[in-house]
């Protein structure tokens, strides 16, 4: 099957999770979502990642984001692993971990990359908008843990740029100046960006973060 691309609809699925059966689209509702895969249960890097996500609950809630994890092990195994995560990471896992023993979801989302490992999922991340469209994909190898501060930064940018006619420059963080998109004419700027703007080049116009 073809790899999923930005703007594609996130495939829907029904799966068993540590919080019962979910229909993915219904579970997301009108919120933003993160779906991220883990090579296997009881693996060291994943244990730190899932603990980190649990600790970031307030940050995800602030941004109206629901999080679901996936591993190719079963739900019974996940429940045992959660005890270890809570104990070692000093937190409480409070989001569903999808059991995917039949690889159904992994294959739907192209999470198994055979040249890396024919059995286990790579560290895929999908950010999904309220319209169920894929807004971001990042793929890490099994050996590299993810940076969840970067994921929050990207979600801040995605949410800002979805509702305002701006883009975010390199290394942008929430609160920094933004780029006015090229489709906005200079005549429109005062109405759209009352905080003012600075023209560096005709194609590079900066404005304070509008929201």
UniProtKB/TrEMBL annotation:
Source organism:
Aquimarina aggregata
Q: What residues make up the catalytic site?
A: 46 (cysteine sulfenic acid (-soh) intermediate)
What the entry lists under InterPro entries is as follows: AhpC/TSA, Peroxiredoxin_AhpC-typ, Peroxiredoxin_C, PRX_1cys, Thioredoxin-like_sf, Thioredoxin_domain
The UniProt keyword set, sorted, is: Antioxidant, Oxidoreductase, Peroxidase, Redox-active center
Domain (Thioredoxin): give its ranges. 4-160
One GO biological process this protein is involved in is: cell redox homeostasis
Family classification: Belongs to the peroxiredoxin family. Prx6 subfamily.
Short name of any one Pfam family annotated for the protein: AhpC-TSA
Q: Which GO terms describe its cellular component?
A: cytosol
Instruction: State the source organism's domain of life.
Output: Bacteria
Its name, as the record gives it, is: Peroxidase
Which molecular function terms from Gene Ontology are attached?
A: peroxiredoxin activity
């Amino acid at each position: 099957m073809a790899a999923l691309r930005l703007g594609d609809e996130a495939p829907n699925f029904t799966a068993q999770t540590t919080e019962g059966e979910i229909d993915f689209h219904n579970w997301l509702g009108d919120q933003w979502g993160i779906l991220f895969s883990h090579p296997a249960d009881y693996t060291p890097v994943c244990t730190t990642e899932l603990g980190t996500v649990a600790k970031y609950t307030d940050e995800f809630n602030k941004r109206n984001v629901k999080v679901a994890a996936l591993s190719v092990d079963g739900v019974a195994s996940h429940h045992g692993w959660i005890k270890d995560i809570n104990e070692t990471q000093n937190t409480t896992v409070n989001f569903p971990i999808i059991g995917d023993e039949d690889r159904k979801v992994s294959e739907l989302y192209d999470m198994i990359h055979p040249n890396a490992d024919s059995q286990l999922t790579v560290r895929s991340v999908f950010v999904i908008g309220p319209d169920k469209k894929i807004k971001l994909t990042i793929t890490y190898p099994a050996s590299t843990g993810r940076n969840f501060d970067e994921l929050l930064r990207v979600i801040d940018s995605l949410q800002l740029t979805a509702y305002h006619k701006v883009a975010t420059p390199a290394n942008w963080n929430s609160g920094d100046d933004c780029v006015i998109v090229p489709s906005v004419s200079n005549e429109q700027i005062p109405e759209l960006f009352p905080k003012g703007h600075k023209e560096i080049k005709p194609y590079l116009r900066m404005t304070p973060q509008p929201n």
